[in-house]
Each structure stands twice: as C-alpha cells, then as structure tokens.
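Me: I keep going back and forth on a fold encoding question. No explanation is needed for now; the record alone will do.

Assistant:
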Amino acid sequence: MEYEKGHVYELMDKGGPTKVTEPYFKDAVDEMMRARTLCAKANAVLPDDPSYVGYLEELFGRKLDDVRILTPFTVISATV
C-alpha cells in the first residue's frame, strides 16, 4: 500500500496507532535523524559560535531572536 508523505503525522495527531515497520513511518525516522544531527552539531560548538544559532534555527524552522536554548539539549522531533 502506498501512503502520502506526512501520513504518519496524521496518524499521530489522531492518537495512533502507528507501526514502525510500515513504510509510512520512514518520514518520522527521517525527521528524528534530522533533529538528532542538528542537536549534535549545536551541542558540539560553543554558544558564541555563529553556527550555533544557525543550527537551532534550522532545527526549529524559524528565527530564534526571542528564545535562548542552553546546551546540552535533545529534541526528538522538531516538526512544526
């Protein structure tokens, strides 16, 4: 069976169930890996490094002028 991109998030919004063995779950896995990679990059640099805020803004998909995040931190998913 074929699923549209984002199907897993529709299921999650409705309270599930989801199955990690189904092809639609790949969207969630891809997002978790993206979030973990950006967290690792942000956690690996000093807070005054210009790339620090860039990683966080990419993670959350918005400017963070009004937000302060202290490392180390972890995000499971940053889907907005």
